[in-house]
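Explain this record to help learners:
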Amino acid sequence: MKSHFVFFTIFITISFSRFSNAQMIQLESFQIDEKEVSIGDFSQYIKSTGFKTKAEREGGGLVYEFGWERKPGWNWLTPYGLPAQDDEPAVHITFDEAQAYCIWKGKRLPTEKEWISAAYTEQRLNPSDGFEKGKTYSFPTGNSPRGANCLGQCGDTPAIDYSHLLDRGVGHSRVGSTKRGVNGLYDMGANVWEWVDIKDASEKGTRGGSWWYGSSQMMSDYDATKPRDMAVVYIGFRCLKPN
């Protein structure tokens, strides 16, 4: 799928989501979550609806070791089978479960084109952190992947060390704890893959790479998909709200 960038003037405002301190960045056509949806965010949805995720119902989510393996007790609340903090990213959530959460918040998942637009092209009137308005970057972190939480190619990261439970990598970081990137967004590159909507009934897009991969998966021309009903340790999401 070809990358498509939308160039437009934006301004930054902050709004507060229901039951959450999650901030959104407002662009001309939509608002997008500043950070990945956290365990604390997702717990409010669970408390309100009583919903049980697929990973919970089936005894655990997936990780890739010698093929896809189900891990007992690994779900959104205990992503590696251990108690987690509220500010860790919500993972082990399928595309449709993520979409249901976003709709509950009055939002939806981004399309692939929307996600790419926000991730790589700086659109703020007065960018911070050395970014230049109108410039399209190679990575969501800028000209290089440094500062993201990827596997071995992004410099030092504040990843939580779950390596003793993994065959590969260290694990995710707390949301918003890595380098702030293009358009003031966190973790659009690496940390956890993010679900995006594409025109396919059975497969949905994942964008940005994750802690399990190196930096090439963070780039805009890297296409990846997963079955929409997969619940995986390194796939999370963020929401978008059209203006």
